[in-house]
């Protein structure tokens, strides 16, 4: 699995993560940032099934290679162009890159483990891959903050060079068995036509045991993703006064004005890089110990309790500013912890044929939920503060997620696709 871990390291975008929202806010409003985020989500909804189908037809590696190409192209575009319309085009490329990767990466890993090792190790290996990606990001985040203080485009230049290495790592990965024969053409019996693809999605996602789980974690992922957009301005809003009290120079107008204007001095940019690196180092524990948490709590308890506690953490900084630091850590840790467990459960309940398409459909459901949340959060942040917008997202999940828990059955023990009892999912 070393080559898989190497690939996961190269898809980190740590160079731009701690400063990306501030970069956009130099010329955009929170509402425009929300619109871009919503556009990205909407395009992902449209693109998930076709790109998942590409992964099942052409092979997982081919889909992942295309993802690297579009990622690098989008990053390079931020170096060369600016403005709302140009950023919209670059967000579209980014959405395409994400959809090409979302189903194929996990489908490749699950099939490879089934063929060569043990598919029961999926949560463990996937979680450690998340940890490797986060550790790489932690180092590059500090460098990214430093580079942003020198020139806002430097982090993007560094990201282009680093993420390009992903193509080399991918070429070293083995093909899944059904794509290894005849230059990648699998036996036609292992392929789905478009109508069969729709039937597979309807059979697995619209019925128990996956229906309630996908709705619950989809809403959770959507809330986390939108909240992540506001970590940078929220950090300046909540922690800026304390930093200024220590003698660190804050841009004119105060920390809240700086957050809204997207202005950041060199010290503030570097501070954000260090903050993100520390949070990412902490969050790597989520992915690294996902397998252990699953063994300790079971799938059902893990996927219900972790999102609920995370939502509570999003609300508290509205009243206690210093709690923002553990809240940031929670935002960064929760998804790497939950996703390997949830995806392992989903993989256990589907057949190998069409797996990439089905996992892409799961991502599509999360993106569909993310679209209206991104728009609403942008408007709320402009009308109030980024901290208030994030708190509202946490409250929304507690209400809506609670309703799913009350009226649905999340991750019940059930017969897997292979016919075994999914006893590990019992609470």
From TrEMBL:
This is Putative sugar transporter. InterPro entries: MFS, MFS_DHA3_Transporter, MFS_trans_sf. The chain crosses the membrane at residues 5-24, 30-50, 62-85, 156-173, 212-231, 267-290, 302-325. The lineage of its organism: Archaea, Methanobacteriati, Methanobacteriota, Stenosarchaea group, Halobacteria. Pfam families: MFS_1 (PF07690). Keywords: Membrane, Sugar transport, Transmembrane, Transmembrane helix, Transport. One of its GO terms (molecular function) is transmembrane transporter activity. The keyword Transport applies.
């Amino acid at each position: 699995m070393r080559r898989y871990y190497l690939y996961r390291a190269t898809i980190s975008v740590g160079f731009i993560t701690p400063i990306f929202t501030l970069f956009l806010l130099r010329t955009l409003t929170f509402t425009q940032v929300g619109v871009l985020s919503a556009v990205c989500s909407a395009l992902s909804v449209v693109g998930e099934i076709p790109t998942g189908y590409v992964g099942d037809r052409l092979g997982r590696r081919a889909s992942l290679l295309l993802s690297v190409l579009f990622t690098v192209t989008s990053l390079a575009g931020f170096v060369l162009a600016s403005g709302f319309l140009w950023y919209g085009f670059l967000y579209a490329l980014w959405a395409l890159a994400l959809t090409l990767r979302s189903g194929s990466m996990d489908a490749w890993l699950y099939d490879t483990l089934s063929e060569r090792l043990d598919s029961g190790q999926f949560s463990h290996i996937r979680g450690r891959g998340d940890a490797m990606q986060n550790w790489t990001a932690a180092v590059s985040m500090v460098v990214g903050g430093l580079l942003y203080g020198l020139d806002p485009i430097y982090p993007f230049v560094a990201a282009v060079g680093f993420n390009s290495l992903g193509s080399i790592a991918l070429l070293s990965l083995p093909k899944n068995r059904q794509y290894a024969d005849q230059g990648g053409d699998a036996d036609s019996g292992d392929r789905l036509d478009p109508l069969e693809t729709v039937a597979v999605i309807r059979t697995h996602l619209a019925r128990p045991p996956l229906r309630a789980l996908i709705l619950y974690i989809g809403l959770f992922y959507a809330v986390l993703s939108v909240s992540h957009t506001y970590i940078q301005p929220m950090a300046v809003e909540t922690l800026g006064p304390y930093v200024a009290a220590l003698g660190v120079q804050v841009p004119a107008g105060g920390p809240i004005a700086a957050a809204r204007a997207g202005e950041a001095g060199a010290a503030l940019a570097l501070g954000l890089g260090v903050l993100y690196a520390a949070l990412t180092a902490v969050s790597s524990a989520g992915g690294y110990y996902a397998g252990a948490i699953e063994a300790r709590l079971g799938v059902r308890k893990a996927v219900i309790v972790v999102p609920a506690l995370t939502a509570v953490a999003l609300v508290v900084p509205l009243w206690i500013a210093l709690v923002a630091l553990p809240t940031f850590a929670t935002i960064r840790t929760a998804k790497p912890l939950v996703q390997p467990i949830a995806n392992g459960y989903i993989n256990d309940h589907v057949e190998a044929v069409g797996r990439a398409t089905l996992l892409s459909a799961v991502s599509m459901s999360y993106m569909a939920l993310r679209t209206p949340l991104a728009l609403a959060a942008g408007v709320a942040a402009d009308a109030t503060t980024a901290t208030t917008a994030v708190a509202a997202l946490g409250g929304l999940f507690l209400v809506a997620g609670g309703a799913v828990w009350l009226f649905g059955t999340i991750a019940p023990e059930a017969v897997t696709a292979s016919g075994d009892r999914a006893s590990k999912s019992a609470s």
